[in-house]
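Quick start: what a row looks like.
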Amino acid sequence: MLRDNGIYDVQVVCIEGFLTDHYDPTKKTLNLDPTVFNTSSITSAAVAAHETGHAVQHARAYTWLTLRSQLVPIVSISSRFVQWILLAGILLINTFPQLLMAGIIMFACITLFSFITLPVEFDASRRGLAWIESSQIMASQDFAKAKDGLWWAAMTYVVAAISSLVTLLYYLSFLNGRRR
């Protein structure tokens, strides 16, 4: 799939762990866990194609991936501190409501990141599945299983985004309740 898309500068490597598959745009590595890297199964092919889809996105400067990559530093810092700032903000809401607002803004950045991730993940699967289908590396009934597996994997991102939004609304309700 990399070669078919004219990508020759991405290295495919096996990394330790389970479900640790990811594309690293900073190192241009396609990182696959041992199960995916060493196994020729429908699942392994689908996962590898999906992750390669991210490499194709990177090579083509896919807008949503670029935006998501730009948010990584902000989300990284927010993720590290947000729970403590929110907790302190809730405890000190009557004396220092700005702390809760700061925590809500940080959590909103994380929520935004979750929603920006959705088109990135769906597109990577779309690209991977299109390549699997065009290259005919698996039978049609196997392709249907790969498609189904990637669909349900993508749904985990949808659930995470919705969960993050509901949690954000929950934290906003603390401020809203204080203002009544």
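That is the whole record. Residues 3-178 form one domain. The radius of gyration is 20 Å.
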